[in-house]
Structures are given as structure tokens and as C-alpha cells.
Design goal:
alpha+beta, Ubiquitin-like (UB roll), 5-stranded mixed β-sheet, 23% helix
Amino acid sequence: MTVKKLSPMPKNLMFALDIGTRSVVGILSKKDGKTHVIIDAEVMAHPERAMFDGQIHDIQKVTDVVRTVIEALETRNGFRLEQAAIAAAGRALKTERTVFEQAIDITKEIDKTLTDGFEMQAIQQAQKNLAENQDLKSNYYCVGYSVINYYLDQSMILNPVGHRGSKLSVDIIATFLPHIVVDSLYSVIHKAGLEVMNLTLEPIAAINIAIPTNLRLLNLALVDVGAGTSDIAISKEGSVVSYGMVSLAGDEITEKIAQAYLLDFNRAEALKVELNQKQNHTFTDVIGMSHELSTAEILEQIDPVIKHITKEIADHIIELNKKPPSAVFCIGGGSQIPGFTEHLATALSLPKERVVIKQIDNVDHIRFESTPLKGPEFITPIGIGATAFDERDQDFISVTVNDTSIRLFNSKPLQVSDALILTGYNARSLISERGESFYITIDGVRREIKGEYGEPAQIFINGVSGHLDTKINHKDLITVIPAEKGVLRKLTLNDAIKMNRKIKLNQQEVNLVEFVSVNGVNRTGEYLLKEGDLIEIKGPKTVKELARLCEIDLSEYVITQNGNVLEDTEALVPGSDYAFKKQERSILTDIDLKSTTPTSIDIIVNGTKIEIPYKDRKELVFVDLFSHYPFDLTKPQGILVLKLNEERAKYTDILNHGDVIDIYWKN
């Protein structure tokens, strides 16, 4: 017997394999503009149950079926199949939502490097949470993630890049796939003599052709009812927003038929398939008894399990979507059971015409050059090929990260972050941190001196500066220089207390700092502070102390500011102008200058002196200052703190000349 020599497969063709629980489907296709053209197809059922719930259990038995499908297509078409596009079961996906938060340098603008580092840290936190919160029997890796929101100083912000703040957080949803799912698929493909050229997820492949982009503005659900699981995908507002899975599908119906009529699994499966093809059925059970039953009689037996499956699917759709969708498309062989869509519509409280089976002839941009495939069970295998065309030439790529060579599966556009996650790179090394703090005490008040911020990480791809979201290609050389932690802040005595603080009294400068002692020893402004230093400042702090320093007798003189007589206890404000003059007393009342009614008051707000006029009012209250000081209350950035002379303030507190006020947002 002469063996026909096979030529290489034309490069414009795609070979897609759908390795399902009940059968293996192989499809050869090509692209003609936007149209997906099916050249040939081969379908073969598993002779024995080698797969359960979409997971391969017997690799060799599944490999034998795949080889048979490959050989049939090769024989008919005359060329050798070497690569295949495949899909992993949706039931294997796990998602984890997490938030990563950290203090940042308020003096620096947020850049892309910082946000990338936060996202990567969140992914690793999600992976850690997944391992801690679930009893996983295999390792999972991230196949994609979406940023839900950023928060800057506890306020939501769409894009923090370019902004400043003291605390940044990111909220993400990350999607993970177990290694065992991919490993078993790859084992079968390699044992069958093929290489994987593209991997996608079954629900993604199905929705890519069943609900194209132009329909995703609508709130639609796609339900792929297979043999072992029912995969769910939901679209709205222009994108696919969630995936889900119910571990109930066609096999539960088959098992119910087998139990009701004493049939082996394969005969029960065949009878189930015939329910939407014939009205009457004749079969023999395992003990030799013959049965003649109508479809209606069989459906009566299996109706409870159909209701149970559709109820579970409906509940999960509502859980994912928070309400029933506008419509539901059903695909997969299990959806063809008579009454399935009606029960699902009832469970979702939708009109029955809103839950329909999506047939291939209702899918746009599909054409057959061979015998057309019929039935919703072929939506997913065709979708695997269509998705692979969109992601063609994606395979494993090799890159080097800091002298470590790794391989990544190119199932999506890959970025530097994907490579770092796979190598287990510590994301904290990408984010600069403050140096250590130390504490000093100034006139009895303890102060924290925070460390300096360090330098952010640097990323280079083939020697060119990049970011975590920079796309990578085969054989790229990635170099990551970790962020440098900040150092202990070098703070001089002058930095801490401003030793050259002065005021003017009758146009003459007066130093507010005579000398400063540190731990009992007089020091100059160049002294470098260290942990635990006790600082005492000698100099006038109040009007009374100023009068004593300048030898002004307050029984004969008054000290004023802007014409207003000051109390003895009034705190001195650096940079201010003061005056003193002899008291003027009335012969009739003996009232001194302090009784003069002022036209305004001066207060200090966040270190800035402002003047507030009385106008027609007898007194001023705290809230009046917002008409004279620019502080935006309409954009909360945390908890509003109001202080009046270092005490907690209320909006109705009376303001007096010389009051010191602090207003700020506290995280």
C-alpha cells in the first residue's frame, strides 16, 4: 500500500480543535475579508468517557480521538496539520477582586511607572488571596485583569497620572487559570503530533462570534450548555463584563434518562439527542426489555432535572448581572433539549421569545465551502478558529528577565508585567518607599521627621526605557533595576525651627529666636538633628514677652497691629509688623486704647495672615473665614479637620484678632 505524501498546510488556513467532554471537533478555515470560511470539518465522539466536566482525565484516550480527527482531515485535504488553535474550558476560570493601597510622596506627580507598580502589586495580592481563600488543588496563574477604579486620598479618580496626593489605591479584578487545564490540553496536542499556535477560553471563543462587538451595548447573556458544564458570558455597555459557570449541563439529563430506563450512558446519550429529532422512540434496556415511548413521555421523566438546571443557570446569570438580562442566546448541544429555553425564560422572568437558541446560520460572516455544520454545538469550535485568526502567530515566546530566561504563552498581547508576574518578581521592588522616620521634641511638642522618598524602579527593554505596560516580543531582553528606598532625612536645626524668624516693632527688626538649645547645649542652625533630640527655643513668643524683651512698660504703653490693640497673651506671628505707643486715657471714662472698636481682625490660616472686615456685624465666626481664604470644600479628600488655636473648632466659634487656624484634609 502506497502512503500518499502530504504537503505542508497552506499558511492562510487555520486548524481549530475543540476538545469537548462528549466529542472532538476539528475545523479547517480561512479568512476572506471579514468572512470566516469553513473549508472542512470532522467530528468524532469519545468512544469512552475520558473527559468529565470539560477536564481531560485520560490523556491517551483523548489523544487517540484527536489523532483520528487529524488523520481524517489530512487524508481528505492532502496536507499535513502541524499546529492547532485550542480553547480551555470556562469552568476552570477563577476570579479574585482585591485592593492595593499605599502612601505616596505628595510632593511628586504620579506617573505611569507608579500606577503600573500598583496594578502589579494588586495582581500578586489577588493571586495570594486566591491561594489563601480557596482550597486549590493546582497552581493558578493570571491570564488577565481589569482595573475597576483608582482612589487618590480616598476619592475615586479615573486616571491618577499627573495628580498629587498622599495615598493611592487601586481596585482590580484578576482572572486565573489552573496549570493543570493547560498542561493536559498541551499534553494531548503534543502527543497527537501538533504544536499549539493559539490558546483561548471557550466562553471567549463562543461570544466572539455569537455576540459580536456591535451587539455588546445591549445587556445580553450567552449560555453554552455543554455536556459537563454550562458556561455563561454577559455583555453590556459595549464590552463583555463577566464570565461564569454552572456545573450542571447535558450529562445530568443523560444520567437521568439512563436511570429512568436502565440504559448505559452511551445509549442514553443517543436517546437524548433524538428527543428533538423524532416523536417516537424504540429501544432496549440493559436487561433486554423493549420500550416504545413518545418524546413527550420521556420529557415528562426528565422535566424536573431540566427545571433544576435552568433554575441554577438563571440564578447565576442574575448573580453576575444583578438582574435578568434583556435577552439570552443559548448554544451547545445541551440547549437543544425540548423545553430547555422555555424553562430558562420562566426562571429569568423573561418572555419566551427573549431566550433563543443561536444557530450557525444566524451568525454573521460565516460561510461554508464544505457540508455546512448544523446545530448550536458548533458555535464554540468555529469561534476558536475565528479568535485564533484575530490573534494569529501568537504562541509561546521566550524573553529574558534580569538574566533569567522564561517562556510565556502568548494568548493575549503580552506586557513587561506578564513576564515579571511569571518570574515571581517582587512588585514592592518597583515602588519607591520612604526612608525611616525619627522623632524630635520642640518646646515639649513631639514631632515626626519622615524619611526621604527613594528613586522609582527603572525598566529597560532591549536597552530602551519602558514601563510595566510596554509590549514585549520574542527574544526581548528585559532589565529591571529595583526602586531605591529613601534614606533618613537630613534635617538641620534651622530647617526645623527657622532660626531667623523676625518681626518688626516700630519699623525695627526684632529676632524671635535668641538662641536654641539641643539636649541642654546651645546649637547653631547647621546642627543636624537626630533621634530623640530635645529642642528648647529661647525668644519672645507673646506680646507680653516682646514687651519684656524690649523693656516696654505695658502699664503705660500698648502694642498694636494694624491699629488694633493686642492682648498680653497674643501670639507673635513671624514676619508681622507691630507698633507700640503710649496709652491714651479718656478723662471721662478712663478707658484705654484697648476699648477702641476695630474695623477688622487679622488671623493666621495655615501660616498665612488674612484680614477679615467686620462690615455691619458685631462679631465674626469661624465659617466667615471661608469667604476670605481659598479652601475648596466641594471636593472632599478625606476627613475635614478644623482647629482654632490648636483646639478642635466648630463653624460657629467666635473669631478674635490674632487667632491661629489650621484647616486640612486628613486621610
